[in-house]
Amino acid sequence: MVHFQLSARAYAKLICHSAKYPDREINGALIGTISKKDNRVQIQDTIPLFHIELGVAPMIEVALNQVELYASSKGLTIVGYYQANETIDDTSINETAACIGKRISTNCDTSCILMVSY
């Protein structure tokens, strides 16, 4: 079993992103390091992506490519994806989250999808 650790910085950024747009679907990338030896993923930072309902694949691809370049320049990798849905109590993984999660998992077999709830 893989253990995920979320840094205070990463947590604060994703909560601030969702608090800034409480009536919208928001999402972003989780970046960090992977320790195969310890089966541990350290989520060190988040990169907020969008605060609109997504349905445009090219925008997602460009954003993830930019995050990948940034993360690699810091010695990190994309280890997951976060999303908060439009309604407060909805933590379901929609098609957008599933597609982005699948795309990230092709490069990181220990990736995760983190659904934000209030």
UniProtKB/TrEMBL annotation:
GO terms for cellular component: EMC complex. Residues 4-118 form the MPN domain. It comes from the Eukaryota. InterPro entries: EMC8/9, MPN. Belongs to the EMC8/EMC9 family. This is MPN domain-containing protein. It comes from Amphimedon queenslandica.
